[in-house]
Amino acid sequence: MAARKKEKETVEKENTEQQSGRKEKPFILVFLMVAAAAVAAGGLVMGAIIYFIGIPGVMPKMKATPPPVYETLELGERVVNLTDPGNIRYLRVRIVLEYKKNEKLTAELKEKNAQVMDAVLKSLRSKSVDDIRPLEKEEKVKVEILNSINARLTSGKVERIYFTDFLIQ
Known about the structure:
A hairpin with an 8-residue loop joins strand 1 and strand 2 (about 90-100). The protein has helices at about 1-50, 105-110, 115-125, 130, 135-150; strands spanning about 70-80, 90-100, 160-169. It is α+β, with helices and mostly antiparallel strands and about 170 residues long. The N and C termini lie far apart (about 130 Å). The mean pLDDT is about 80. It is about 55% helix and about 20% strand. It contains 5 helices and 3 strands, in the order H-E-E-H-H-H-H-E. The longest helix has about 50 residues, at about 1-50. Strands 1-2-3 form a 3-stranded antiparallel sheet.
């Protein structure tokens, strides 16, 4: 019986050693799989960063498009009667047009100077002091004049209009 008991203890020892050895192997496998997953995730993150942001110094620099060159055309000073009832009010205005550099448009504006001035004067004559006095309303007048000028042009369009002198009396 003592021999059997000894045999039983040695078998149990071997079983526990085998079990403990088996437990170590799965722990190493799990550790290796987690490490491999972490490396793969890091690779994906780095790939995304390189794809969306790029590597400084490796990617060719984007050529910046130069800003457009603008030309101006001064229409001169004009005096216009305003439509205030009972009051004789007038507006003295000096107007400058700004447009992208375009030789065809420059020639067309010089050729159609009379039509452009007519559009400006019609727009201004239809206004009263209350229509143009606050700054916000002055901007609306500019947009209206700009639209009426551009409706007469075929080679391009005027981008901005400036009042360099603006006096109401």
